[in-house]
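Reading a protein record of the kind used here takes little practice once its layout is understood. The reader may check this reading against the record printed directly beneath this paragraph.
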Amino acid sequence: MTELSGTALTPLLRVEDLRIVARGTPERVLVDDISFTLDSGQVLGLIGESGAGKSTIGQAILGHLRQGMALTGGRILFDDKDLACLPQPQLRRIRGKRIAHVAQSAGGAFNPALTIGAQVVEAARLHGQMDAMAARERALELFRLFSLPEPEKFYLRYPHQVSGGQLQRAMIAMALCSAPDLIVFDEPTTALDVITQLGILQTIAGVIRRFGVAAIYISHDLAVVAQLADHILVLRHGRQVEYGTTRQILHAPAARYTNDLLDAGRGAHRRPATRIENPQLLSIRSLSASYHHQPVLDGISLSLLKGRTLALIGESGSGKSTLGKVVCGLLAAKSGSITLDGRALPPTLGERSREHLQRIQMIHQTPDSALNPKLLIGDQLNRALQKFTDLSREQRRRRVLELLGQVGLSAIVAQRLPHTLSGGQKQRVCVARALAAKPDLIVCDEPTSALDPLVAREILALLRQLQEDTGVSYLFITHDLHVVEEIADDVAVLCHGRIVRQGSVDEALNPPLDAYTQRLIEAVPQMREDWLAKISISLDRQQVIALGTGSDTLSWGSEIQSGWRERRPESLTTFFPES
C-alpha cells in the first residue's frame, strides 16, 4: 500500500463516463460508463476476467486505442487536460514522460536487436530530459536499486541474455527513467512463477511507496492487486461491477461476481485425494538435458500412472518446461531413459513413429501463439484428425463437431477464426486439438497461467472431466500452487534442474518441508491486503537474495537517503517527493 495520500484538490487522473466501442456492423461496446479518480501516490487496481475491458481502459489512458476502436463518450482528464481532445503531438509529449507503461510480457515489449540499456533510456532521451551520460547514470542507479546483477554489464546485455524476472524489473526501470507521474502496470506478473512474482511485487510496492508515483495496476489476480491497491474497480463485460477500497472489496463485497473472484482466488475447489494404484504409463530414469552445453536437467527420475495427473512445479529456470519438451521429443536428452508403457521412447520427434506422436500430445501456455491466426478453428482440428486418424472427410467433419462439444463449445465455433474467440475459448480449442489424436498422455505447459481465475477454473474442471471420461494422463507444468491443488494427484518440485521433493500432493506440500518448497508455498499471494508487507518483513537477507529481489528491496529508505536525491538530474526534482 502507498504511504502517501493524495492531498491535491484536483485528482491527478479523473475518468468520467468512459465509453469505448469497436467499429463494425453491428458496433460492439467494449467499455461502457466507467468512472473513477486517482490521486498522486495512490494505486487503483483494475480487476476482471479476460475481455472485461481492463487493458482497453489502460491503453485509453495512455492515449492509445487499437485499430478499429473509438472513444465515443466520456472524458479522461489527466492533470485537468482531456487526453481524448489533445492533438497527437501533445499526446506524444505526455506518453513516456508523464504517463508510462509496464507491459505484461517484457520479452515481447523489448526490441531483441537493441541492448537493454539503450531501450531503458530511450524515452528520457527522446523527451530531452537528460543527455546520454546522465541518462546512462540514471539507468544504472535504477538497476542498482532493483538489485539487477552487475549494472554496467546488464546495461549492455540484450533481452534474451537475462531472465524473465530481471527483464521485467528492467521494464519497470524503463518506465521510471523519465520520472512519470503515472504508471500503468498491465498484468506485469501474470506469467511469472510465485518467487519471481514476489520479487516484482516488492519492487513495484517500493517504487510506489518511495517515489510517490500514481499507478493503475491491471490484473485478473485479486490477491496480487490487494497487495498494492488503495481502491479496486471490478469490471465485467466492459461495465463497472463494483468500486471501493481494497478492504471493502476483500471483506465486504457487494456483488456476487466479486465473491466468485474471491472464491476462485482462494483456491476453494481442492481435488480429493485418491489412493488408486493404476498401472504405470510414463517412466523417466536418471534423465539429464542441456541447451548448448549448459546443463538444465540433472538426474531426473519420476513416474506417471495411467489416468492420473503429475504436476511439475518450481520457479522459472528450474527445468519444468524443458522436461516437458524432452518428453514430447522437442529436445533430446543428454543421458537417461524414458519409457511409455514399458517401451523405450525414441529421444526426438524425427525418430518417433506416428503412434508415438499420437499417444503424446501437448497443450501450450499461450493459445494465441499455439493456434494459426489465419485458419478456421474447424480446419485446425481437421488437420490433427488427418494426421492421426484414418477417418473419411465426412467422418472428420462430424468428429470436429464432437470435439467442440466435448470441450463445451458450440458447432458455430468451427467457422470462426481464433481472434474472434475469448482467451478461455481459444484454450478450449487447444484442448480439443490435443484430444483429436486420442492420446494417452497430454503435456500441459502452464495452460491456465494467462487466464483469469474463473476461466482457469473452468478449464481445470474440463480437464478433470475429460480425464474421468477418457482415462488420459496429464503431465501438468505450472507455477500456481492453487492449480496444483485443484488438478494434481502427485507433484514433483524442481529446483535448478533437480527434483528436490516428490510424492502425492498432500505428502509433498505439507510439513515437514524443505527450505525451497517452503519458500514456494510462502510466496503464493494470500487474499489479505497486508500479506506483502508481512512477508517482506519476515524474510531474512539470504531468503530475499534467493528470491531474486536482493537486499535493497528491504532498504529503500537508506538507498534513497544515502545520496540518491543528490545525484539525480535537477530536471527530475519533482519526481522524488520529500518525506
